[in-house]
Prior knowledge:
- The protein is α+β, with helices and mostly antiparallel strands.
- The protein has one domain.
- The chain is built from 1 helix and 4 strands; from the N terminus they run αββββ.
- Strands 1-2-3-4 form a 4-stranded antiparallel beta sheet.
- Strand 1 and strand 2 form a beta hairpin.
- The termini are far apart.
- The model has no long low-confidence stretch (mean pLDDT 85).
Amino acid sequence: MRATGNPSRCQSGDRGSRRPWEAGFTFAEVLATMMFVAIVIPVCLHGIALAGKAETIATRKLNAVMLAEKTLNELVVTQQWQSGINQGEYGAEWPGYRWTANQTVWTDSSMRLLTVTVFFEVQGRVYDVHVSTLIQESSI
């Protein structure tokens, strides 16, 4: 039977005619590939770990902002900010989150700036978010 098509292609009957050095990769190619993989894999794993940490921090900050807004609204509506209650924790529902409230006189003396700061920890580092509002002095 006569072979048709590209004569440079190896036909099923021609497999034994290939030289041994044409059959696979050279040692230098395998070594270069192993070195490339040894460099790339740790860098990729470090990038994945950083992305995971960034996602955790972003989620925790989102929760902290929500808690700070809730606490700020509660302090203003119940007027607890006047009674000197200026710190607390969120308990078992939100473990690891704590808050402080601080009030200062605004540039306009009839206003006060009330700021709630929520603190949380991620991998041994403390992060915080601040939410503020102005309160009219006449509501005191």
